[in-house]
């Protein structure tokens, strides 16, 4: 089994509260710890915002510097769960799928897409804003956590 060398994150509902108003609890402290040992990246779907926009949002919250790459669906032409968006992020980080973990809040895109390319997946369920339906088959995550701090115990 390969050692985890990188972690990919969704943005909305995973790092930043949906609507962009605030960081979710534990994000800064968790990223601070992870940054010293892992390559970190963003893989996010948006039809409106570009990488520059996402980086500006991350900068506004003081976390942009934690990330080695930001991959945005609008810029690359692929949306999660399409595996190509994950491969772009992995290539930019110099990682193989088995060396990465995808952390997101939606089983149907974050988990399903990550699993399809061989990435371990973490579903964060800190709220019920996004009902998950059945967490089985392609949508069954490797790990389920209810807070960002719990990520440290599963990697």
Which characteristics define this entry?
single chain; 155 residues; alpha/beta; Rossmann fold; six-stranded parallel beta sheet; 31% helix; 17% strand; globular
Explain what you see.
- The chain is α/β, with parallel strands linked by helices and 155 residues long.
- The chain has a single domain, classed as HAD superfamily/HAD-like (Rossmann fold, 3-Layer(aba) Sandwich).
- It is 31% helix and 17% strand.
- It is globular, with a radius of gyration of 14 Å.
Strand order of the largest sheet: 3-2-1-4-5-6
Return the CATH class.
Answer: Alpha Beta
> Total number of β-strand segments?
6
Q: Give the overall shape, derived from the CA principal axes.
A: globular
Count of domains: 1
| CATH fold title | Rossmann fold
Strand coverage percent: 15-25%
SS class: alpha/beta
| CATH 2nd-level architecture | 3-Layer(aba) Sandwich
- Give me the number of helical elements: 6
User: What is the succession of H and E elements?
Assistant: EHEHEHHEHEEH
Q: What's the main sheet like?
A: 6 strands, parallel
> Uncertain regions: pLDDT < 50 for 5+ in a row?
none
| Percent helix range | 25-40%
Distance between the termini: 13 Å
CATH homology group: HAD superfamily/HAD-like
Specify Rg, calculated over alpha carbons: 14 Å
């Amino acid at each position: 089994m390969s050692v985890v060398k990188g972690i990919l994150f969704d943005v909305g509902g995973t790092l930043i509260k949906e609507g962009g108003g605030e960081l979710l609890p534990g994000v800064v402290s968790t990223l601070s710890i992870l940054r010293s040992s892992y390559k970190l990246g963003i893989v996010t779907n948006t039809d409106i915002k570009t990488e520059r926009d996402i980086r500006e949002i991350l900068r506004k919250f003081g976390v942009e510097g934690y990330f080695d790459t930001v991959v945005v669906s609008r810029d690359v032409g692929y949306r999660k769960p399409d595996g190509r968006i994950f491969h772009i992020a992995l290539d930019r980080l110099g990682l193989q799928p088995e060396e990465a973990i995808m952390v997101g809040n939606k089983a149907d895109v974050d988990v399903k897409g990550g699993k399809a390319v061989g990435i371990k997946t973490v579903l964060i369920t800190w709220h019920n804003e996004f009902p998950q339906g059945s967490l089985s088959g392609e949508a069954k995550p490797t790990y389920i956590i209810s807070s960002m701090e719990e990520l440290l115990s599963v990697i």
